[in-house]
Amino acid sequence: MNYAHERLALGAELRRLRRDAGLTGVRLAEQTGISQSKISKIETGLLLPTFEDLNRIAAAVDAPHDRSGWLNEQLNFLQTEFNSWRIELRYGLAAKQFDVAELEQKSQLIRVFQMSVIPGLLQTPAYARSVMALANNTSHTDVEDAVRVRMQRQKLLSDSTRSFEFVITEPAIWSTFCARDVAAAQIQHLSGMFVLPNVRIAIAPMRTHFPTIPQNNFCLFDDRLATVETLTAEIQVSDFRDVKEYDSLFRSVERACLPVDAARAFLDDCAQLILSETVRDGSKPN
Are 85 and 233 contacting, i.e. CB atoms less than 8 angstroms apart? Predict the structure, then answer.
């Protein structure tokens, strides 16, 4: 299915139903409580309606049951975007960081579940550089620019009006893809982030008993959007029912994690073990 085509098809169907009902855009706005300009943007495919908008419009135009079902299924499809990393990164690594920053700026509560690496908002520059270089399968040359933008994103952590919650599993702590001194410094930095009043970090060791099986890394932006990482793409989910599922998953795994004091002690032990291995064999493997 072509995303742009299906978005236009939804708007066109709503416009057809309105006209069949003998309603102008102004009259429909009056009946639904939705602004006429918003209705116009929905009908032309410039804006997706919410499910509440859709149900109000369907009721106002007395849409047949089969068309109401089609409209809801169509909106459900359109509220899930699948973007290949080749497309997401087509303008470079730094451009993607700006896109993420824009999402973060619009959010009051940001939650991150990460099984692979330390989340970007908590990374040191050296660690971020290693992550960017390893993930640069599109061969962009702007790694340093991307690292700089990622560090700029972290200024948001000092905004006390926002809240940040992270669930990080043990495999993400053992950052064997970078030099050991970089990994140890990253863990020590992470441990220091516990003092921030608006940041909550939960650590899940290998033996943590999760009530369900997390399958992907994901981020939640308020209660409106979930972004999910796969090997080849990023999926953006805005259907409130699906976002609620990710919210439920996040809360359940968070409750299974270590208490704060135990988490900090665990991180300190990890950092010391990595440093002792570095001293013992004198190597800094990539």
Answer: yes
Beta bridge pairs of residue 113: 167, 218
List the structure tokens of 169: 């599993």
Q: Binning pLDDT at 50, 70 and 90, where does residue 278 land?
A: low
CA 25 to CA 12: how far, in whole Å? Answer: 13
- Please report the domains of the chain, with CATH numbers, ordered by start residue: 3-78 (1.10.260.40), 82-281 (3.30.870)
pLDDT at 139 over 90: no
Q: Which amino acid, one-letter code, is at 63?
A: A
> Edge to edge, what strands does the sheet with 233-237 contain?
80-84, 233-237, 225-229, 217-221, 109-114, 163-169, 199-204
Identity of residue 34: I
DSSP 121-189: GG--HHHHHHHHHHH-TT--S-HHHHHHHHHHHGGGGG-TTSEEEEEEEHHHHS-TTS-HHHHHHHHHH
Would you state the pLDDT for residue 286? Answer: 41
Mean pLDDT of 165-170: 97
Dist CA 278 CA 284 (whole Å): 7
The closest alpha carbon to 49, from 238, 245, 227, belongs to: 238
Q: pLDDT value at position 140?
A: 83
What does pLDDT average to over the chain? 90
Say how far apart CA 108 and CA 24 lie, in whole Å: 37
3-class secondary-structure state, position 114: strand
Strands (E), the chain: 80-84, 109-114, 163-169, 199-204, 217-221, 225-229, 233-237
